Structure formats: structure tokens, C-alpha cells
């Protein structure tokens, strides 16, 4: 009987470890590459981050960022709450420079709901 209890305990421990492994990400997101667009009479660099689909989860935030490659600053970011697309505009635009787009999408999943954020990018473009 002691042997049976030891085997059952060992198997239950193995099952718990296997169950603790992370599953697939709760939501997928689409990050657009940086591109030049007209904005109020001048040019700006923009990127977007959009929720692309969620599996039994709820997207609650998207953040899109653009940075000039080689610059010391953090770049510019824009945030949207819920399932809205985040879009950022970076100025001043420098022709011929390389820009880096990054983002972060966040969703809640599980019971009780837990936040899960995933980084996106980087995507680069010389514009």
C-alpha cells in the first residue's frame, strides 16, 4: 500500500508540473511597419498595433511605438484601451533615416483573470 501511495504521489506531481507549463498566447496582434504619411501639412512616420484575434481572452490595451534608429530618446508611443488600434505619429520626419516600430499588446486570461502582455517587433524601415 505504501508503494501504491508513493506511485500515486509521484504521478500527481508529474501531472502538476506538466499543467504548469505556459500555454499559447491569449491574443495575437498585428504590428505595421513604419511608413511616411502626411500629417497637418508635413510628413510624419507612423505605425499601428491592432488586435488580430483572441482565444477565450479579452484584449485590454495596445501600444505602438516608433523610434529613429541611433537616437538616444525612447521615441514616441501611443496607447489605446480595449480592442482599439494604437497608432503613433513620429515627427520630425528625416528622409533617408531608419525607423524602428515596436509595440505591446495586453489581454486578460484565465480564472481569475490575469494580465498577459506580449512585445511585438521590432520592424525597421529606411524611409
How many DSSP H or I helices? 1
| Helix-strand category | mainly beta
Q: What is the straight-line distance between the termini?
A: 73 Å
The radius of gyration is 21 Å
Largest sheet: number of strands, sense, barrel closure? 4 strands, antiparallel
The unreliable regions are: 1-22
- Shape by Cα distribution: elongated
Summed over residues and divided by their number, the pLDDT gives a mean of: 84
**Strand residue content:** over 45%
Q: How many beta-strand segments?
A: 8
Fraction in helix = 10-25%
From N to C, what is the helix and strand string?
Answer: HEEEEEEEE
Write the layout of secondary structure elements.
Elements: H1 2-19, E1 27-31, E2 35-39, E3 42-54, E4 58-68, E5 76-81, E6 86-90, E7 98-109, E8 114-126
Describe the protein:
It is elongated, with a radius of gyration of 21 Å. The longest helix is centred in the first third of the chain and has 18 residues, at 2-19. The chain has one helix at residues 2-19; strands at residues 27-31, 35-39, 42-54, 58-68, 76-81, 86-90, 98-109, 114-126. It has 127 residues and is mostly beta strands. The strands form two sheets. Strands 1, 2, 3 and 6 form a four-stranded antiparallel sheet that branches. Strands 5-4-7-8 form a four-stranded antiparallel sheet, with no helix packed on it.
